[in-house]
Amino acid sequence: QVQLVESGGGLVQSGGSLRLSCTVSGTTFSINVMAWYRQAPGKQRELVARIISNGSTDYADSVKGRFTISRDDAKKTVYLQMNSLKPEDTAVYYCKRAWPPPDYWGQGTQVTVSS
Questions:
Q1: pLDDT in tens, 5-26
Q2: Which of 95, 79, 35, 96 is nearest to 60 (CA)?
Q3: What is residue 103's DSSP assignment?
Q4: Are the beta carbons of 69 and 78 closer than 8 angstroms?
Q5: What is the pLDDT of residue 53?
Q6: What are the DSSP E strand ranges found in the chain?
């Protein structure tokens, strides 16, 4: 069964850094389009970053220049490096397999940024 497991969340101060990891099992990871989403309390889930098999990436405007998505196909892992964190980055962060269908989601990891 396809399984995605996030890790690396935690509590950091404003301006700090954190790296999230998502390990994937049960699928051919190298062909997958992977993405990170986040959902803050009282808000809709939003796309944060996306990466395709050849390494091409895109980002939400709110995180450009601060966050970096990357992948390691040998480890079947996708990462989200988050720098210059702000309180508004506080959310549950979810890893998603966006391609091929169907979509699969991880359970999420909490990121809390204090001011």
A1: 999 999 999 999 999 999 999 9
A2: 35
A3: P
A4: yes
A5: 80
A6: 3-7, 10-13, 18-25, 33-39, 46-51, 57-59, 67-72, 77-82, 91-99, 104-105, 109-114
Express each pLDDT in 35-89 by its tens digit: 999 999 999 999 999 998 888 999 999 999 999 999 999 999 999 999 999 999 9
Structure tokens at 113: 């940024």
Peptide bond into 102 cis (omega under 30): yes
If you average pLDDT over residues 25-36, what whole number do you get? 89
Would you state the structure tokens that stand for residue 11, as one six-digit string?
Answer: 């509590």
Q: Specify the amino acid at residue 48.
A: V
Say how far apart CA 18 and CA 10 lie, in whole Å: 8
Question: Do the Cβ atoms of 35 and 51 come closer than 8 Å?
Answer: yes
In one-letter notation, the amino acid at residue 106 is G
